[in-house]
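Model it.
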Amino acid sequence: MKKILNLIFGGIFLIAASLVHAAWPDRQITLVVPFPAGGGTDIVGRIIAKELAQRLRVNVVVENRPGASGNIGARQVSKARPDGYTLLICSTAQTISGALYTQAGYDVVNDLEAISTINDGPLVLITRPGLKLASVQDLIELARRSPGKLTYATPGYGSAGHMAAEALSLAADIRMLHIPYQGAAPMMSDLVSGQVDIAFDLLITAKQYVHQGKVNRVGVATRERSPLMPDWQTLSEQSPARLGNFNETSWNVLMAPKGTPAAIVNAINAQMKNILTDEKVQKKFMELGSIPLWKSVDSTKAFVSDDARKWRKVVSDAGIAKI
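Modeled.
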């Protein structure tokens, strides 16, 4: 009799749970952007919020929770109720944080649920005006002649540009001097004025400076040429033996608290596929210098996990001091 009652109550619970999931969404969804308003991730978040709201027929409100390289907002979402009403726009910064921060307060792989990739923005290796290099191979040879003297500028410690330069140093077996700045603007100012030698920057920003003759381009940091600038060579092309698999980008992924029901995660992923294959949305991303990128739930999980693993190895192999 007890077993029968347990089966009955268990069945009632499953039915109730399925009804709750079936009713989702029936109220406002909060989309947390862990960076300030007006930045690249914020713009991506607002595009996605608008599109999801139209398709799900509920309000999707963007909440900016900046601080600690995105860790404050990501930590908040990791501790939120896993009911599908709190989502996160995750970025490359979150997988880097897992490798670099000793007390981030969350684990991007174990405390968050990957839903869908969103976009992928290629990085470009550029140099100061007076440093003209035919290819990345010239840079490698220059760095080897004077170990530790070639300077690379970044918008901050632990930024995508910082980690890309360290990944390049490891792959090419060279040593360069890191000059971190408080943001991309002062970094570019000193690069243009010749105070530092090289930098990795987003293609959308770098191409403006290249076209104006303010900096020189070396190559795009992706395995294949970017459809955004198909005539620009990749670093992989220039040095296939050393950099054949070199692929450094700045991406965004939609995530939720761990334990969010699979039915909800799959439903959002399906909507993201519709959004990211919409020509109007694709055009918006291309104008931002980023490529729309949809992956299935399982592929997105693997994408985030692989990226987190990669940065842990880079931090360890390069001996980068943790924060």
